[in-house]
């Protein structure tokens, strides 16, 4: 798009130069040729310039029809081809959000969560196709999803601690907690997403072992927490570590992604977690770095 803009601008400037050349008698013929020629270039540039890089009237927006076009497994490039650039991005959790247009509610949104390969893992919406749940304390005692996030964060901190030490830097164990309605099943169950800073005061495969232990301990705590008065359809964990790339640059990145779905959560023997083989039973178990060194 910028190429056509530059071409259009240059053509316009040269056309102006041609108009000035019309004034002196000696350059009048040349000026006429330049003016006409580059005026035509301007018209052609404008005609063939591609349309705006987003399909709707405003960038970062999405309609109900567009939301239905987005399917699990799509790449980010494919989604951009359909929707244009998102309204906002959260690179820490690999999430994009778009503002809704003409949804069932005035303020609506759609969010897209990507896996480590930047392919769509799942999508969520609020107010676009379905109404956003609201809680009126005077008439409804059912907690909102945001209320559950505090209960979950507290349960995690009670189970594995509030802080972790990264090279003498104290960091909160819990980065972010999300609770989302399972719109696909519409059975009142919810999806729990937890983003955690992992333990690094270990070497080699010791990190993986500790992550496995804490993942199971958190699953036990959440499935047995009476304050979470809903069916847990799945718990997905993103464990972050300070990882160093081949160029020697260290950056906080997702090191493990683990997902436990309802059937798996129900079959775990929580009374003897030491014998649970998490990599085998997990519905998703991704190690995103070499933890065998």
Automatic annotation (TrEMBL):
GO annotation, cellular component aspect: outer membrane
Keyword Metal-binding belongs to the record: no
Residues in Outer membrane protein assembly factor BamE domain copies: 62-98
Source superkingdom: Bacteria
Gene3D superfamilies with a match to the protein in the record: 3.30.1450.10
Keyword vocabulary terms for this entry: Membrane, Signal, Transmembrane, Transmembrane helix
TM helices/strands, residue ranges: 6-24
Ranges in coiled-coil conformation: none
Protein name from the UniProt record: Outer membrane protein assembly factor BamE
Source organism (scientific name): Peribacillus asahii
Name of the encoding gene: bamE
């Amino acid at each position: 798009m910028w190429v056509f803009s530059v071409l259009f601008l240059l053509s316009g400037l040269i056309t102006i130069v041609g108009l000035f050349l019309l004034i002196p008698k000696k350059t009048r013929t040349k000026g006429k040729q330049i003016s006409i020629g580059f005026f035509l270039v301007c018209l052609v540039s404008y005609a063939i310039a591609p349309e705006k890089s987003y399909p709707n009237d405003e960038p970062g927006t999405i309609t109900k029809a567009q939301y239905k076009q987005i399917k699990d497994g799509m790449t980010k490039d494919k989604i951009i081809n359909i929707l244009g650039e998102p309204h906002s991005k959260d690179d820490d959790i690999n999430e994009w959000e778009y503002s809704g247009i003409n949804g069932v509610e005035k303020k609506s949104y759609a969010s897209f969560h990507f896996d480590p390969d930047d392919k769509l893992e799942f999508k969520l919406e609020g107010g676009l196709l379905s109404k956003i749940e609201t809680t009126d304390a005077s008439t409804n005692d059912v907690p909102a999803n945001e209320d559950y996030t505090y209960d979950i964060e507290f349960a995690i901190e009670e189970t594995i601690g509030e802080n972790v030490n990264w090279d003498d830097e104290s960091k909160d164990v819990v980065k972010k907690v999300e609770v989302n309605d399972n719109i696909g099943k519409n059975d009142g169950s919810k999806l729990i997403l937890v983003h955690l800073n992992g333990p690094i005061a270990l070497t080699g495969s010791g990190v993986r072992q500790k992550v496995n232990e804490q993942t199971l301990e958190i699953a036990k705590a959440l499935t047995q927490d009476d304050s979470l008065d809903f069916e847990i359809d799945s718990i997905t964990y993103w464990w972050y570590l300070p990882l160093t790339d081949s160029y020697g640059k260290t950056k906080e990145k997702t090191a493990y992604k683990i997902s436990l779905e309802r059937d798996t959560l129900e079959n775990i023997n929580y009374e003897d977690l030491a014998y649970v083989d998490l990599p085998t039973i997990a519905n998703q178990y991704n190690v995103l770095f070499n933890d065998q060194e």
